Amino acid sequence: MIDPNRIPQHIAIIMDGNGRWATERGKPRSYGHAAGTDTIRSVTADCVRLGVKYLTLYAFSTENWNRPAEEVAALMDLVLTQLTNEIFDKNNVRFRVIGDMSQMPEAVQKRLRDTEEHTASYDRMTVVVALSYSSRWEITDATRRIAEKVRNGEMKPEDICEDTVSQHLNTWFMPDPDLLIRTGGELRISNYLLWQIAYAELYFTPVYWPDFNNDNLLEAVEYYQSKQRRFGKTEEQIEAEELLKAKK
């Protein structure tokens, strides 16, 4: 049973298994990616109904540029054809993108910018898509920008703290994920939000992304709610804090 008072504020998902889903059906890998866009629509709507505030989807990594050219081209085409305002208008959902946009085709960059602008006033939930993204790239980029500020005298080295790094990451505008879901059966993080998931609950499922549905999402949320999030504290400390809150 889902506790409506303990819904994760931010869910991050590694959408894995599209290619294998298609291959098992004798179809090209691009067929699986296309099917995966239907899952994005349904999961977005499901998260809105649950009350999730941020949904971050790992769509294309910096390493994915090394995939066969025809698969990369098909993925870029999906951005152009499937990223429609209807998805966001219907659910009052804001769209944001993170990643190295300079690597994306100009037409894709324009579609992403236009969608961000169109949905800028929507506030029920924010969907963040990670495109041409990797944590190592992101942290390297943040380090360069912090170093530039130190060189220009805008910041002192001794003033750099964890918040400084967080504020220079692509994800500066949202809280860290509470729950990370990976579909497709692999048990790894794949260079995704490495800084941000320091205390996230990790949920792995063998279900391929095109088959991931509301029941699977609820199972992941139930798993999250079964955990006591201690953030380095002891179980006794957490229980005492919860008791104090209940008395208030």
Description of the molecule:
- The chain is of the alpha/beta class and 248 residues long.
- 44% of the residues lie in helices and 15% in strands.
- β3 (93-98), α5 and β4 form a beta-alpha-beta unit.
For this entry, give a set of tags.
248 residues, alpha/beta, 6-stranded parallel beta sheet, 9 helices, 6 strands, globular
Brief overview:
With about 250 residues, the chain is of the alpha/beta class. It has helices spanning about 20-25, 30-50, 70-80, 85-90, 105-120, 135-150, 160-165, 215-225, 235-245; strands at about 10-15, 55-60, 95-100, 125-135, 180, 200-205. The chain has a six-stranded parallel β-sheet with strand order 3-4-2-1-5-6, sandwiched between helices.
Helix content: 40-55%
What string gives the helices and strands in order?
EHHEHHEHEHHEEHH
The largest pleated sheet is described as: 6 strands, parallel
SS summary, helix count: 9
Shape: globular
Order of adjacent strands in the largest pleated sheet: 3-4-2-1-5-6
Poorly predicted segments: none
Structural class: alpha/beta
Radius of gyration: 19 Å
- Overall number of strands: 6
Beta content: 5-15%
Mean of residue pLDDT values: 92
Termini separation: 26 Å
Q: How are the elements arranged and paired?
A:
Elements: E1 10-14, H1 18-23, H2 29-50, E2 54-61, H3 69-82, H4 85-91, E3 93-98, H5 106-118, E4 125-133, H6 135-151, H7 162-167, E5 179-182, E6 201-204, H8 214-225, H9 235-247
Parallel strand pairs: 1-2, 1-5, 2-4, 3-4, 5-6
